[in-house]
């Protein structure tokens, strides 16, 4: 065998060996890819309305207001191999990111799943509140215990789901009221929490202790604002987590509660978190979400302003990017597009 042939043979064997190693060598990275996209004006995978409103007049809608998602491969329980990671780095629709950005070292898979579920639930409530706020429909709030810190005074006395109705005899309807009052209490003071549990009122006198930094008086409860709506709104999307569908939920609710179809039959998609006041916030995976939207047929993509720079650098052909700062602004932008009148805020770097 000639020296050249021997060299080619050795090189081929080396490449084969490296390929075999790469196909089985797990790496601590996660591949992010375009996920499912669903029309908030349509039905879920069970054929039921994705958003249903009872107790209030609703109006026919048409077109699309699609929320978008990101799916992933990899993670501590099933890492991708080196070759998959390399292919992902070369693919336009895939992002390869360090494992710890998706799966923090200090959280279990169960904790991550629970947090994603909680974020989705909070997002739905915020979307409902934002839509009603935009429509001028009043919404009241209540303070609910979301968690109890072990070893703290509230442990074994209060429970998640208890509604806090008063603090030291003063009525409270928001978390900010509770935290404002607690900020005036000293470590070692006794506070009395009035609560409602399954329709029954109770009172708990708890001696405050220091927070981990030793600066504030606490009793060991994690509180959250919950909204009391004047009618029923159900959002049924199945096993999808995270907060990024908030904007599209709120637009769909607004559409159903106002005469005439908001989209006029056009295909809009988008993403963004939402506050109860209607402020739109940034999200992750904007490139993958745009690709999913365009493949589904969207021609306009509502984009949080803080995601605009990344979106512009990866915008699929045929997809118009519209900057969404608030729910009110998004509604105005859609009206301007469908009517052909008025200015439309565009994404800029």
TrEMBL record:
Enzyme Commission number: 3.4.21.53
Protein name, per record: endopeptidase La
What InterPro entries would the database entry show?
Answer: Lon_proteolytic, Lon_Prtase, PDZ, PDZ_sf, Ribosomal_Su5_D2-typ_SF, Ribsml_uS5_D2-typ_fold_subgr
Chain ranges of the PDZ domain:
117-199
A Pfam family reported for this protein in Swiss-Prot or TrEMBL? Lon_C
Q: Where is the active site?
A: 244, 289
Q: Where on the tree of life does the source sit, at the highest rank?
A: Bacteria
- Known catalytic reactions: Hydrolysis of proteins in presence of ATP
User: Record's family?
Assistant: Belongs to the peptidase S16 family.
What are the protein's GO molecular function terms? ATP binding; ATP-dependent peptidase activity; serine-type endopeptidase activity
Species the sequence originates in: Actinomadura chibensis
Entry keywords, A to Z: Hydrolase, Protease, Serine protease
* GO annotation (BP), single: proteolysis
Q: Where is the Lon proteolytic domain?
A: 239-337
The yes or no answer to whether the keyword Hydrolase is present is yes
For this UniProt entry, which residues form the secretion signal?
A: none
């Amino acid at each position: 065998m000639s020296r050249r042939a021997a060299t080619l043979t050795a090189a081929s064997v080396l490449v084969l060996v490296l390929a075999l190693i790469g196909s089985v060598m797990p790496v601590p990275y996660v591949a992010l890819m375009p996920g499912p996209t669903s029309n908030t004006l349509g039905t879920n995978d069970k054929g039921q309305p994705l958003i249903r409103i009872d107790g209030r007049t609703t109006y026919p809608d048409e077109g699309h207001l699609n929320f978008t998602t990101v799916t992933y491969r990899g993670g501590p329980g099933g890492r991708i191999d080196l070759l998959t990671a390399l292919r992902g780095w070369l693919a336009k629709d895939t992002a390869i990111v360090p494992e710890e950005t998706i799966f923090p070292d200090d959280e279990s898979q169960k904790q991550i799943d629970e947090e994603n579920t909680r974020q989705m639930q909070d997002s739905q409530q915020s979307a409902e509140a934002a839509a009603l706020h935009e429509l001028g429909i009043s919404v009241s709030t209540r303070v609910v215990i979301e968690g109890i810190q072990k070893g703290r005074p509230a442990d074994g006395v209060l429970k998640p789901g208890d509604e806090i109705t008063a603090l030291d005899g003063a009525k409270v309807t928001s978390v900010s009221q509770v935290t404002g009052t607690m900020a005036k209490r000293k470590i070692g003071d006794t506070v009395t929490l009035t609560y409602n549990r399954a329709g029954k009122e109770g009172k708990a006198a708890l001696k405050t202790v220091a927070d981990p930094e030793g600066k504030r008086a606490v009793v060991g409860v994690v509180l959250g604002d919950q909204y009391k709506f004047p009618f029923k709104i159900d959002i049924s999307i199945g096993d999808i987590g995270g907060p990024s569908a908030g904007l599209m939920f709120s637009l769909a609710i607004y559409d159903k509660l106002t005469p005439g179809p908001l989209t006029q039959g056009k295909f809009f998609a988008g993403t963004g978190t939402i506050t109860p006041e209607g402020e739109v916030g940034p999200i992750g995976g904007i490139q993958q979400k745009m690709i999913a939207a365009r493949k589904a047929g969207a021609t306009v993509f509502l984009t949080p302003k803080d995601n605009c720079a990344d979106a512009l650098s990866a915008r699929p052909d045929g997809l118009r990017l519209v900057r969404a700062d608030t729910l009110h602004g998004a509604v105005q932008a859609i009206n301007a597009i469908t009517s052909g009148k008025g200015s439309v805020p565009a994404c800029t770097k």
